[in-house]
Design brief:
Layout lengths: L5 E6 L4 H6 L4 E5 L2 H11 L3 E5 L7 H7 L6 E5 L15 E5 L4 H11 L17 H7 L7 H13 L6 E4 L6 H11 L7 E5 L5 H9 E2 L11 E2 L1 H4 L4 E5 L6 H13 L1 E2 L8 E2 L3 E6 L3 H6 L5 H7 L2 E4 L10 H16 L7 H8 L6 H15 L6 H10 L22 H23 L4 H8 L3 H10 L12
Parallel strand pairs: 1-2, 1-3, 3-4, 4-5, 6-13, 6-14, 7-10, 10-13
Antiparallel strand pairs: 8-9, 11-12
């Protein structure tokens, strides 16, 4: 026992000692900070694990525990802020409570990759502070996301293409950023390109850049996103919407990592990792000739499927609390969600997935609805969705509005959403325009302009349900 490295635990053991003991450490528990500092000076532990109640870990205590070369593993709740002292010396790792034993062991191996009696069997994977503090906790709240986290950590250091698949709003973007943060390219740029946001001719310039005079309006050279992602990662969102003509050029870039700017002759070589995502069924697109088969196989070396939120409902309370904390800080509010409300949110199907949940919490914080009764929350949830929304929507034939074009459809949808939000805020403050402007964070003059544009007045009929 005497020859084993010491793992010093400050606070509640909560099974931590048993977990690190299986890894070959000798756990020593100190319930009080002074006792932990004294034990650290006397025993020179291999690592320090802190599991204190929320608010107990102050910057001063963190400085006292900080020793060069001795990692600190902090067990925190999602809403508990992490102190960040300027003179932090120790490597810092954060695990969200409740801590999964497998996650704890993975963090210990990351912090001390050559520790423990079986260290020769571990890989030499090490992850940066940003991955462990920002992304690893997000991938730890359900069995399905923990499985994704394991894949992320397996492929992070391997410079191969990855295709992320899943419904809209499930968090493919977050998982892609997690791969980047866990990779050796973490200090390089992460460049996201939405392939559905621009028409083909503009998208080509956006991806590969252009030379001065390449086309009308090209008054100077422009670097493309691939060049900007050099030494980092480029993330091609909604790759299934990429025009066929561009797919051929992208195929060569994926193969050779070299290209020419539009209107240029110079061959540019880049060192970037390529990741892509889609919510489309690419196999169906292949059969229809809408997506190149060779590009599909080049991109789909590693496939990560992100499940919909309804299949990982245990994450909803955690995500809702995290969003609530963020928006409370952003809008300087102090809203709270009751346990009954959290349970109601967890049982909602969330056809819009994480994005819908995030927008719902934002709206509640902004409008002051976060303390409503569960019955009112349930009514608001149902009212926020179209009557025909479903978990697995079926595409219907195009309506007459489609002929207006996507840009006009988007403008009309934005106007409608703005009108509904204005109406709801004004009704809640009994048409006190000063209060409404303050809630919506616009000037009084802007509010009056918006009211006029939306055709609202104090006697407007209620919105149809």
């Amino acid at each position: 026992m005497a020859g084993k490295p010491v793992a010093l635990i400050l606070g509640d053991d909560a099974g931590i000692g048993r977990c690190v003991r299986t890894m070959g450490f000798r756990p020593i528990v100190a319930e009080l900070p002074d006792a932990a500092v004294e034990a650290q000076q006397r025993l020179s532990p291999a690592l320090v694990l802190v599991n204190l109640p929320n608010g107990s870990l102050t910057p001063r205590l963190l400085r006292r525990l900080s020793r060069p070369g001795i990692p600190l593993l902090l067990m925190r709740d999602a809403a508990d802020p992490i102190p960040d002292p300027e003179d932090q010396q120790a490597p810092l790792y954060v695990l969200r409570r409740p801590v999964d034993p497998g996650d704890l062991q993975a963090a210990v191996r990351t912090a001390l990759p050559h520790s423990g009696p079986n260290s020769s069997n571990h890989t030499d994977r090490t992850f940066g502070k940003r991955y462990l503090t920002e992304y690893a906790p997000l991938l730890s709240h359900s069995a399905k996301m923990r499985a994704i986290r394991e894949i992320v950590e397996q492929v992070a250091a391997i410079n191969t293409t990855i295709l992320f698949r899943g419904e809209s709003g499930v968090g493919k973007d977050v998982v892609a950023r997690a791969v980047h943060a866990a990779s050796p390219r973490a200090d390089g740029p992460f460049v996201k390109v939405n392939c559905a946001a621009l028409p083909g001719e503009l998208l080509e310039s956006e991806l590969f850049g252009h030379e001065k005079g390449a086309f009308t309006g090209a008054y100077r050279r422009k670097l493309g996103k691939f060049e900007l992602a050099n030494k980092g990662t480029i993330y091609l969102d909604e790759i299934g919407e990429l025009p066929l003509a561009l797919q051929a050029k992208l195929l060569h870039v994926v193969q050779d990592l070299q290209f020419s700017r539009i209107g240029g002759r110079e061959l540019i070589k880049v060192d970037t990792r390529i990741m892509a995502s889609t919510n489309r069924n690419l196999e169906v697109a292949l059969g229809r000739g809408e997506f190149r088969e060779d590009l599909y196989y080049r991109l789909n070396v590693v496939e990560i499927h992100v499940p919909p939120l309804r299949e990982r409902s245990e994450e909803v309370p955690v995500l809702a609390s995290s969003f609530l904390d963020r928006f409370n800080r952003e809008y300087q509010q102090d809203r709270q969600l009751t346990p009954d409300t959290l349970a109601l949110l967890a049982n909602s199907p969330w056809p819009g997935n994480v994005r819908e949940l995030e927008n719902f919490i934002r709206r509640f914080v902004v409008l002051g609805n976060a303390q409503r009764t569960p019955q009112e929350v349930d009514a608001a949830l149902r009212a926020s969705r179209r009557p025909d929304s479903a978990v697995a929507p079926v595409l219907s034939p195009p309506t007459a509005d489609v002929t207006r074009g996507l840009r006009e459809i988007a403008r009309r949808a934005a106007r409608d959403a703005e009108r509904i939000a204005l109406k709801e805020v004004l009704d809640r403050v009994h048409w006190n325009r000063v209060a409404a402007a303050r809630i919506l964070k616009v000037s009084y003059k802007t509010l009056l302009t918006k009211i006029a544009e939306c055709g609202l007045n104090h006697k407007s009929p209620p919105e149809p349900v």
